[in-house]
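Morning!

This is the sequence you dropped in the shared folder:
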Amino acid sequence: MKTKILMAALLSGVVMTAGAVTAQPVPENMPERPDFATLDTDSDGTLTMAELEARANARFTDADADADGALTAEELVAQATANAEDRVARMIARLDTNDDGILQMDEMQPRGGARFERMFERMDADKDGVLNEEEFATAQERMQERAGGRHERGHGGGHGSRGKH
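The structure's back. C-alpha cells below.
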C-alpha cells in the first residue's frame, strides 16, 4: 500500500516537472488538484485514508497504459505529456485575450502590474532600480525556500532551480 502511495507521489512529481518545463510561464494554479468533493467519493463530508489511497491508485492505473502493475519511463512520460498538453490548453484559454487560439507576446506579459513592480522593488535591495547578480541570487533562494516549504506541506509549487545548468 505504501508503495502505491509512493509511486503516486513520484508520478505527481514527474508530472509537475514536465509541466514546468513544457508550459512556460508556469500557470499559477498548476498542478490542478481535485477538490474536496471529488476526493470525498462517498459524499459523507469527510476524507478517509481509503478515499485518498483510491485517488492514488486511480492515478497509477491511469498512467499504467499496459496494465502490468508497473510504470515504465515511457508510461510516465506519456502521462506527463498528456497532463502538460491539458495545462497548455487551459493556459491558452486563460491568456488568449484576442480569442485567436494562439498567444502573442503582449498576452504573455506579466499580469501583475503594480504587484510585479512591488516584487521587483523588494528584490532590489539597494534600491538603485536594477538587480545585480547578488540581489537576483538572493531572490531565487527566497523563492526556492518558499517553494520547498509548500512542497514539504504537500502543496506543490516547487519547480527546482530553473535556468541553472
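Headline: Residues 110-160 form one domain.

More detail when I'm at my desk.
O.
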